[in-house]
Predict the 3D structure of the following.
Amino acid sequence: MKIFRNAEVKMSLGILIILLLIFGATCMYMIHSYTKSLNKIHIQQNIAVIGAVVRQYPEAETEVIRNFTGDFQKDYQYGKSLVSKYNYDENMSIDKNNSVISYFRRTNICFQLIFGSFALILIIFFLLSLNRIYYRIRKISEGAEAVVEGDFQPIEGGRDEGDIGFLISQFNLMTQRLSENVQALKNEKLFLKRLITDISHQLKTPLASLIMFNDILKNDLTISEQERNTFINESKDQLDRIDWLIKNLLKMAKLEGGVVEFQKKMAPIHNSIEKSLAGLKYFADEKNINISVSGDRNICVKHDVSWTVEAFSNIIKNCIEHSANGGNIEISWEENNVFLEVTISDKGMGISSEELPRIFDRFYKGPNSCNPTNIGIGLYITKSVIEGQGGAVYVSSEPGKGTKFTIRFMKVE
């Protein structure tokens, strides 16, 4: 039965059985003692009768002793007729039997005291058992009230045996989940606040420029056609920057908010690298930078192609920006039984040891940043994408000698 899983029930039942055995043994002892005493009184009374009769009639000694130690039925009816004249027979009340009544009263009082003591012990034991159970229930109630007030501390006793221990364990689990949900809501609120702050901060400069260009075009009627076209082109550049900012900030928000579900599938890694290079070839050609690619084209790994292309593009773009005109960028990959490793390295200006721990931070721009429009979220997005797929990204660099990015995709999930 499931009720016997409870330590309180097993302990209470054990103590109750012990008390019942003690009470039973006490009752048996009292019955035995009472019977023994009655037997003693009865024998003493018979001896007194024998002594009185034999003293008067010594010749009847044998006959008298036979009635007390052997068959007494022969003279029973005659004796019964004699004593009935004095109201002495089997139906006589105990109260009138002076030889028995005093002992019966003492025994009765003793039995009542024992029964009363046992009943009192049972009542106390019952109350203590209930108090133990209700004490733990009160602790659960106090814990529930504390949760309502925002205190998510666990209740002691969650590892105890029985239904109440299981209830406390489930209550603590519920409290932990509520605490995690509340913390998640707080983090989400903080995240939204920070995101709005970041967006407003990043859009403030291009919007201010657009407002200024618009005011000039609207109010200054003396500007030439060439100057007007210049302002229009500047406005277009600022609009393109706003579009780029919004798209990247939204990507960052999705990654930080954990709403991105990476669609990982087995695909050749060289395809993803080629796609990431497609949009950067013009940028590389402007600086006459050579990008070499080497690796087994048959190597495949599970990854989200679209997001991985985004991650590779951010790293390669960073390498192009920090490479001198006519520089070289090398991209290679290899695999083992555990992971696939992609290496992207340049021979650019490098990164100081003080900057290295921070280059993947959101909105971090190093002192050697070459692009004034850079807002420092590209490498942050790259790290989030790679780690979101169960991979890892590392960087090593030496000022004046270049930088090396290492991306690993795990084969065993």
Summary: Residues 94 and 108 are 13 Å apart (CA to CA).
